[in-house]
Design a protein that fits this description.
By secondary structure, the chain is an alpha/beta fold. It is built from 14 helices and eleven strands. It binds (2S)-2-hydroxybutanedioic acid.
């Protein structure tokens, strides 16, 4: 795969410096792993629309959804090599390229709601985290929301004990791994594009995801039960290849920045509705039983996952966790 990415990268480089006339548009390949009708898919389309409008066609954004070009980890490598210019991977996916700090967003129950999340992403902590990406050959441009995660399985999951011994697909985050282990689950890292089949064939017993991802991947058709745990958050960091970005004419970069700001506001204003709609569709389908937890059951889940904070402190960094909690703790909605 690396060879393929490298070949694509050199073609992309040639296209940038090659015999292009002044009229040839600058191409931004934007790759992502989810369906177009998801919070990320819609924000990407909005960015394309605005970027092409504000640059009067000097920039063309090619969107490749559904892991069409690259799967999870390959996607980030492809960006570093310049085979694609833009991505929006989830916070959970930056660990393998050495930026484990974004895994702080994966801590169980760290965010009471999306309003509180904004305090982090729009404030100094959000900016500081984006800066960490510079040394990895990428520039962090924005935070995009998906939403809160629920648990799916072929078994009714109500108490922490129900999870024991099950195999769950997780994203490539050590915090998610620790979270699953705290529940007695055997975690298995797997690319997003492979989850449906793994659930269907029983390679894994369950997984966690947002409603929009569950619905658009049809996971509810191969999982008998979904428990509304809202135990964690899935969000994205929009990243662009740094060399590409720094090499753009200043006026174009300014127009793209403006397009990104507006696409972000649009997407984040829309994400809750996308997930609510997906929830309604899953419910309507009747294919999966939706289970809600009583306050006592919810408290038991929180308690079971509490040790995760200690387990991952040395990896994610206790000062970072503290800084994050300072913003989120005591927040009211
Ligand atoms: C997942 O891999 O489950 C999600 O991060 C996919 C996505 O990008 O929403």
């Amino acid at each position: 795969m690396k060879k393929l990415i490298l070949a694509a990268a050199s073609i992309a480089a040639l296209a940038l410096v090659g015999p292009a006339s002044a009229q040839s548009p600058i191409i931004i390949k934007f790759s992502h792993v989810v369906a177009p009708n998801t919070p990320k898919g819609l924000a990407t389309e909005k960015f394309k629309e605005l970027a092409e409008k504000y640059t009067a066609g000097k920039v063309k954004v090619e969107v490749y959804p559904n892991s069409q070009l690259y799967k999870d980890k390959e996607e980030l490598e492809a960006l570093q090599l310049g085979a694609v210019q833009m991505l929006a991977p989830s916070n959970a996916k930056f660990g393998p390229i050495g930026v484990k700090e974004f895994e702080v967003f994966d801590l169980p129950y760290i965010l009471p709601d999306l309003k509180t999340l904004r305090k982090v992403t729009d404030g100094p902590l959000g900016a500081k985290l984006l800066k960490l990406l510079d040394s990895k050959g990428m520039t962090g441009l924005a935070y995009w929301d998906n939403g809160f995660k629920v648990m799916t399985a072929n078994k009714k999951l109500v108490t922490p004990a129900d999870y024991k011994g099950l195999k769950f697909r997780i994203q490539s985050s050590k915090v998610l791994e620790a979270q699953m282990r705290a529940l007695g689950v055997i975690p298995q890292v797997m690319a997003f594009s492979e989850v449906y089949q793994a659930l269907q064939t029983g390679v894994v017993d369950g997984q966690e995801n947002s409603w929009s991802n569950i619905y658009t991947q049809k996971m509810h058709e191969v999982q008998k039960h979904i428990t509304v745990t809202n135990h964690g958050y899935i969000g994205y960091v929009v990243v662009v290849n740094k060399k590409f970005w720094d090499g753009l004419p200043e006026d174009i970069r300014g127009q793209l920045d403006k397009a990104m700001k507006e696409a972000t506001a649009y997407g984040n204003g829309q994400s809750q509705k996308e997930n609510d709609d997906a929830f309604a569709e899953v419910k309507k389908s009747g294919k999966s039983e939706i289970l809600t937890l009583t306050p006592d059951q919810d408290a038991a889940m929180r308690k079971a996952m509490e040790p995760v904070y200690k387990d991952v402190a040395s990896r994610v960094g206790q000062p970072l966790i503290d800084e994050f909690l300072k913003e989120t703790r005591g927040a009211t909605n």
